[in-house]
TrEMBL record:
<dbReference type="InterPro" id="IPR001387">
    <property type="entry name" value="Cro/C1-type_HTH"/>
</dbReference>
<dbReference type="Pfam" id="PF01381">
    <property type="entry name" value="HTH_3"/>
</dbReference>
<dbReference type="GO" id="GO:0003677">
    <property type="term" value="F:DNA binding"/>
</dbReference>
<dbReference type="InterPro" id="IPR010982">
    <property type="entry name" value="Lambda_DNA-bd_dom_sf"/>
</dbReference>
<protein>
    <submittedName>
        <fullName>Helix-turn-helix domain-containing protein</fullName>
    </submittedName>
</protein>
<feature type="domain" description="HTH cro/C1-type">
    <location>
        <begin position="18"/>
        <end position="75"/>
    </location>
</feature>
Length: 130
């Protein structure tokens, strides 16, 4: 799917992709609802699969990624939230690893990472880089 794809085509293609993931796992709509602790209702998932909902929330995509065993980034790309790896310029690729590496951090780890990020940015500013 490309970023220039019309919303209707994108939602239909994305819905078909979600339906294929569910079928590959052998799950019913209700089983997905249960597996997501009712985060994704069977009615909502049905609407997604039939292209009636064009862009589910990132929270929904995260829940579905967990159940279907696919990467969250893949679902975010296919839903049109982020550009695909191949379409990103070199500059756009920097910093993406950190975005998807924040799961399961303790509060201390998160604070340490933010402190270190601040340090790196201050070094860059001192060198005159934007």
């Amino acid at each position: 799917m490309t970023p220039n794809m019309p919303d209707k085509s994108r939602s239909s293609a994305f819905g078909a992709y979600l339906a294929s993931l569910r079928a590959a796992k052998g799950l019913t709509l209700r089983e997905v609802e249960e597996a997501t602790d009712k985060e994704v209702s069977n009615a909502y998932l049905s609407q997604l699969e039939h292209g009636k909902i064009s862009k589910p929330s990132p929270n929904i995509l995260y829940s579905l990624a967990e159940v279907y065993g696919v990467s969250y980034e893949t679902l975010m790309e296919r839903a049109g939230y982020i550009t695909t790896q191949q379409q990103r310029t070199t500059d756009e690729k920097h910093g993406r690893a950190a975005t998807f590496a924040i799961d399961n951090l303790t509060a201390e780890e998160e604070t340490a990472l933010l402190d270190y990020l601040g340090y790196l940015r201050s070094k860059r500013l001192n060198k005159g880089e934007a």
